[in-house]
């Protein structure tokens, strides 16, 4: 099939590489310009560079809404568009242009976690598995019929980086497998159960600010979700920003006020956590490694030279 690819960052790069390695003919690539956004500088392999290396024409756009791009698509005469990690809305006149429609590849197990940063949100929420879905594009965000979907388990110590590596390896088999079904003439696919759909926004600095009213189990997953190379979860101690690089749920249960620097337990320093911490029924979050405002990385037992005081969400 003649394929036009819309994509960005490493997800788009892997999709384009899979297409180039396949029997399909990539006739045009559309990608975004480079960005300085913190999350878009991560996993930033260039789709444009890969296309140019293989002699595929490239268009660079923030949004696919101009007449020149539309005419280039008409001239390319695609059987199908394949999109992965395209960051803005694709209008119906574009996704409906190819003879076989548009296949979107999304790194979640749709209908859950439509939208942005699905791996991070899924890890924070304690999902047991994550994956990749190829679905036909329609007017709604990540809502079209599912052509192919594959899942991988989330391990008890997995970080968002671990999940990225697990799921990025699914892109090629999911994409090429879905295209094989479409090329064979299949047109009926699995409809999404929209009652199970959930939608998530892009992550920002507010989403990595630690709220000590969260249960320790949730905070431990937040720390893993925001591990390197993502911006680290942070709190404030004595008015200074303190990044939490590693933490575990405490063995013991600790009562009091959320955010209290309470007790040394093993290799960590326990912080009281949970909105109902006053009951004394909660585990705390045992910080094990932190980074100070001036960039020093320390074990928590080195940093907290005495117990007492509070960690807070704001200075």
Q: What's the story with the biggest beta sheet? A: 7 strands, mixed
Radius of gyration: 23 Å
End-to-end Cα distance: 57 Å
Provide the structure class.
alpha/beta
State the helicity in percent bands.
10-25%
Overall pLDDT level: 97
Q: Which stretches are poorly predicted, pLDDT < 50 over at least 5 residues?
A: none
> What does the oligomeric state look like here?
single chain
Q: In total, how many beta strands?
A: 16
Q: Which H/E pattern describes the elements?
A: EHEHEHEHEEHEEHHEHEEEEEEHE
Query: How much beta, percentage-wise?
Result: 25-35%
Outline type: elongated
Strand order of the biggest β-sheet = 3-2-1-4-5-7-8
Task: Give the count of helical stretches.
Answer: 9
Organism: Streptomyces lancefieldiae
Protein name: Methionyl-tRNA formyltransferase
InterPro entries: Formyl_trans_C, Formyl_transf_N, Formyl_transf_N_sf, Formyl_transferase-like_C_sf
EC number: 2.1.2.9
In short:
This protein has 315 residues and is α/β, with parallel strands linked by helices. Helices cover 24% and strands 28% of the residues. The chain has helices at residues 9-20, 47-53, 67-76, 92-95, 118-124, 160-168, 171-183, 216-225, 300-303, and strands at 2-7, 25-31, 58-60, 80-84, 102-106, 114-115, 129-136, 146-153, 199-200, 234-237, 240-253, 261-265, 268-271, 283-291, 297-299, 311-312.
């Amino acid at each position: 099939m003649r394929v036009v690819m819309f994509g960005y960052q490493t997800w788009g790069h892997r999709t384009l590489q899979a297409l180039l390695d396949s029997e399909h003919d990539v006739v045009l690539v559309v990608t975004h310009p480079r960005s300085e956004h913190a999350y878009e500088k991560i996993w930033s392999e260039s789709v444009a560079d890969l296309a140019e290396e293989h002699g595929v024409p490239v268009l660079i756009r923030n949004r696919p809404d101009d007449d020149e791009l539309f005419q280039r698509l008409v001239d390319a005469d695609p059987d199908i568009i394949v999109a992965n990690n395209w960051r803005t809305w694709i209008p119906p006149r574009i996704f409906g242009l190819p003879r076989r429609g548009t296949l979107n590849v999304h790194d979640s197990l749709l209908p859950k976690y439509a939208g942005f940063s699905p791996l991070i949100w899924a890890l924070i929420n304690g999902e047991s598995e994550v994956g990749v879905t190829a679905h036909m594009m329609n007017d709604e965000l990540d809502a079209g019929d599912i052509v192919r979907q594959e899942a991988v388990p989330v391990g008890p110590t997995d970080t968002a980086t671990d999940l990225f590596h697990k799921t990025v390896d699914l892109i090629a088999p999911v994409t090429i497998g879905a295209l094989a079904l479409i090329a064979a003439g299949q047109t009926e696919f699995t409809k999404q159960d929209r009652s199970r759909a959930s939608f998530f926004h892009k992550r920002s600095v507010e989403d990595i600010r630690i709220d000590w009213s969260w249960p320790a189990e949730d905070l431990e997953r937040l720390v893993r979700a925001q591990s390197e190379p993502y911006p680290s979860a942070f709190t404030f101690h004595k008015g200074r920003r303190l990044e939490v690089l590693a933490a575990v749920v405490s063995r013991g249960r600790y009562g009091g006020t959320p955010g209290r620097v309470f007790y040394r337990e093993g290799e960590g320093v326990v912080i009281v956590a949970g909105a109902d911490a006053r009951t004394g029924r909660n585990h705390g979050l045992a910080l094990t490694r932190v980074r100070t405002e001036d960039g020093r990385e320390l074990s928590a037992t080195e940093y907290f030279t005495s117990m007492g005081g509070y960690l807070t969400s704001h200075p």
